Amino acid sequence: MLLVVFHMILQVDNRSRKIGKSAFSLVELSIVLVILGLLVGGILSGQSLIRASEMRSVISDSQRYITAMGTFRDKYFALPGDMANAISFWGAAHATPATCRTTSSTSAATCDGNGDGQIGTVDGGTTVSERFRFWQHMANAGLIEGTYTGVAGGGGGTPVEQPVIGTNVPRSKIAKAGYYVTYFNTPVTTVDFFGDSVGNFLFFGADNNNSTGAPVIKAEEAWNIDSKLDDGRPGYGKIISYPTSNASVPNCSTTASASTAVYNLSNAGTVCTFLIKTGY
Question: Torsion-angle region of residue 200: left (phi > 0), alpha (psi -120 to 50) or beta?
């Protein structure tokens, strides 16, 4: 079919030349249009391939961090960040424990956690140290790449718990996104999140001043990741998201009920993020 069309263009082009037109020939214009079409198609295809690669990286990163968490526990008999004898292995960022919790480090020097199995606060809720020492301890153990300060970035929330992506928490391949770990000491059944478990959770999303919980992917992308790693439902399983009752992330799921909620696939906006139950 293309050969027939091209032959017809040649015939018209030859007639145009006989008439004496000096403008671009039909063949020349058609070649330009074909090249432009190929360029546009190639760009769109390339963007799709890049985005697919980014989505795969979210899956592999999440699995790698949770696996590293288990490997750390098997090796040191404690969870990273919560480890009560970390300075025995890597030295102290500061000799005074209270000051150590707010002392950043560009080396392996770190601080101890309190060993209670909860990656959160170590002093009754005023200093969030373990959530950021978590990444430093894992890097010190050679289980993840990167260098992390081990302390909060300041600002946002009570207690102060701001992540700075690429500085105290890992950066995702998706722009402005990163990972964050925290412990929930009451069942996650409030308006904030779907879910029904107590434990340590891995967050994925953009910085929202006190976690990496701001929307960063589409509902279809969240559903795809959830389907590959879990059950494809935002309110159940080890991967959970946010109900419509959460004012910050109201459009990721269809309802506020975990039993009926599904991902809002008709929404093409950047409306989703998610949490993963680590099992530790």
Answer: beta
- Bridge partners of residue 181, in order along the sequence: 202
In the sheet with 177-184, reading across from the earlier edge strand, the strands are: 177-184, 199-206, 274-277, 239-240
State how far the Cα of 258 lies from the Cα of 274, in Å rounded to an integer: 14
Question: Do 129 and 121 touch, CB atoms closer than 8 A?
Answer: yes
Q: Which helix (H) or strand (E) holds 139?
A: helix 130-140
Residues 134, 151 contacting (CB under 8 angstroms): no
Tokens of 107: 């080396």
Percent with pLDDT over 70 in the chain: 76
pLDDT surpassing 90 at residue 127: no
Q: Which residue has the tokens 């279809």?
A: 220
Question: pLDDT tens digits for 46-62?
Answer: 677 888 889 999 999 99
Report CA-CA distances (Å) from 94 to 42, 100, 136, 139, 238. Answer: 54, 5, 15, 19, 37
| CA distance to 22, 163, 208, 225, 240, per residue, from 276 (Å) | 67, 18, 18, 11, 7
The DSSP symbol for 253 reads: B
What is 170-218 written as a DSSP string?
PBPSSTTEEEEEEEESS-S-SSS------EEEEEEEE--SSSS-B--EE
Instruction: Tell me the pLDDT tens digit for each residue of 65-122.
Output: 999 999 999 999 999 999 999 999 999 999 998 888 889 988 999 999 999 999 987 7
What is the rounded CA–CA span in Å between residue 153 and residue 148?
11
